[in-house]
Design a protein that fits this description.
single chain; 481 residues; mainly alpha; three-stranded antiparallel sheet; elongated; RNA-binding
RNA sequence: GGCCCCGUCGUCUAGAGGCCUAGGACGCCGCCCUCUCAAGGCGGUAGCGUGGGUUCAAAUCCCAUCGGGGCUACCA
């Protein structure tokens, strides 16, 4: 059997991390088994679906590198892969179901249904609607003949039960007594999610449905529908949901959930994939870091965890740092140049870029998030007149500061050659001469050239800054003491 | 309320009766390194929800209980 899986988001919101994880697992499973990964747009909710959301989903799926073989925007033999383009097909299936007695036109009103459910609830039983509120057939025909509208409901066979083996959760059983005769066609003739999704899965030959656990209790509906269509149900795998730190389903109130927010915050797609994969699956051999290809190689759906996973920003951040350190310098420069230019407030000249490139090895291992590079590299390209207040009072307004600054000026003025090693030796000599500790004697210099108590390593920074700039900055700071 | 799913360190997980005085990773703490901050090295902290069984032996099997989550729309 050739594996065919699909990721079928509804464009009713931006691509969020939970959906991205579902997409990732589908992708890993497809690639691992040499199957086909399909992207579909489940946009049957016309009121909430927008082109903007659709575009966002495509953009971030691409950003993550989760390329799909077939489907929305990539072509394939099943049309547009956009459900809103297939209403005729869904209607055809629904009408066929009615003809064969698997579905019926329903006239039950919302009020009637509410009463029915409340009564069931009060009795402490299952609230599934079983069609008992429908008027006799003649009345329905008359109603329809008069041109009135009605919804179409699927007739759940009762008594009965649906059982299936979920790849991640094992054997699952649902008594039909608690499965509603659910609506498949709305009164305006458009399909509901259950119908459209199931018809597509059948039509597109989907072999494995890998989706969120929130759809677990809808699965009997999908299996029943599939069987009524005369098709073989897919194999299902329901992934546990992502949780916030409070144990509730991950949502906006826990912070950013949109993938776009993570890119903007400076996360790398490789880190996102690696982290998301770990939320519910372990690579094996006590390993934590693995590339997409390595994960494809080792992915196994049946070892995916049943537990809901809490999304932990701290670990993601750490992992992002790992991937940043792993970037090669050129890659790092192109990823951070815009950030540095933003921090500096202007475009970097050719010479500026060369200086930045020399600083790269120093800042690369100090960043967990890309934007941090802006504040770390900024000092190279701007005049320092906005000394950090705390830094100034803590390291400049002490007796050691003027001594260190004057001493530095003296040994650096004619230093040859202007290299990290020579600067190191010269400044250490100066410290010894004045009986200053490295901490006390070097911090004033750092503040003078960077305006901050935190900067890339001092001697290297001075070398890259250049003699003229270094001396000028030290003099400026000294004059303010 | 009903139905369904889930329950190992704070978090993600390994563990499929003896290999477990429970392993790894993040976090946190300490030490080392050190010009700041990181990175790195070393060490530490912390967990089988609870109660009953079964067994020579249970994190692993059974039952109950408690806790958490999902669904319960003409949303998906």
């Amino acid at each position: 059997m050739t594996v065919r899986v699909r990721f079928a988001p509804s464009p009713t919101g931006y691509l969020h991390v939970g959906a991205a994880r579902t997409a990732l697992y589908n992708y890993l499973f497809a690639r691992h088994s040499g199957g086909t990964f399909i992207l579909r747009s489940d946009d049957t909710d016309r009121a909430r679906s927008t082109d903007e959301f659709q575009a966002d989903i495509l953009e971030y799926l691409r950003w993550l590198g989760l390329e799909w073989d077939e489907g929305f925007d990539a072509g394939g033999r099943h049309g547009s892969y956009r459900q809103s383009d297939r209403y005729d097909r869904y209607r055809e299936v629904a009408h066929g179901l009615v003809r064969r007695g698997h579905a019926y036109y329903s006239l039950a009103t919302g009020e009637q249904l509410d009463a029915f459910k409340q009564a069931a609830r009060a009795a402490g039983t299952s609230p599934a609607y079983d069609g008992s509120l429908e008027p006799p057939y003649e009345e329905i025909s008359k109603w329809l003949a008069a041109g009135e509208t009605a919804v179409v409901r699927f007739k759940v066979p009762r008594p009965g039960e649906t059982t299936f083996t979920d790849v991640v959760r094992g054997d699952i059983r649902f008594d039909h007594a608690q499965v509603d005769d659910f609506v498949i066609l709305r009164s305006d003739g458009t399909p509901t999610y259950h119908l459209a999704s199931t018809v597509d899965d059948v039509d597109y030959g989907i072999t494995h449905v890998i989706r969120g656990e929130d759809l677990l209790s809808s699965t009997p509906k999908h299996i029943l529908l599939t069987q009524a269509m005369g098709a073989e149900p897919a194999i299902y795998a329901h992934l546990s949901l992502l949780m916030g730190p409070d144990g509730k389903k991950l949502s906006k109130r826990h912070g950013d959930t949109a993938m776009s927010a993570y890119r903007e915050a400076g996360y790398l797609p490789e880190a996102m994939n690696n982290y998301l994969a770990l939320l519910g699956w372990n690579i094996g051999d006590d390993e934590t870091i693995a590339s997409l290809d390595e994960m494809v190689e080792r992915f196994d759906l049946s070892t995916v965890s049943k537990n809901p996973a809490v999304f932990d920003h701290k670990k993601l951040e750490w992992m992002n740092g790992v991937y940043i350190r792993d970037m090669d310098d050129d890659e790092f420069v192109s990823a951070t140049l815009p950030i540095v230019e933003e921090a500096v407030g202007r475009a970097l000249s050719e010479g500026d870029r060369e200086r930045f490139a020399r600083l790269v090895p120093l800042v690369k291992e100090r960043a967990k998030l890309l934007p941090e590079v802006g504040s770390q590299a900024r000092f190279l390209f701007v005049e320092i007149d906005d000394y950090d207040e705390a830094a100034w009072s803590k390291v400049m307004e002490v007796d050691a500061a003027p001594v260190a600054l004057d001493g530095a000026l003296a040994v650096l003025e004619d230093l040859e050659p202007w290299t990290t090693e020579a600067i190191d030796a010269a400044l250490r000599g100066m410290l010894e001469e004045h009986g200053l500790s490295a901490r006390k004697g070097l911090q004033p210099i750092r503040v003078a050239i960077s305006g901050s108590m935190v900067s890339p390593p001092l001697f290297e920074s001075l070398e890259i800054l250049g003699r003229a700039e270094t001396l000028e900055r030290i003099r400026n700071a000294r004059a303010l003491l």
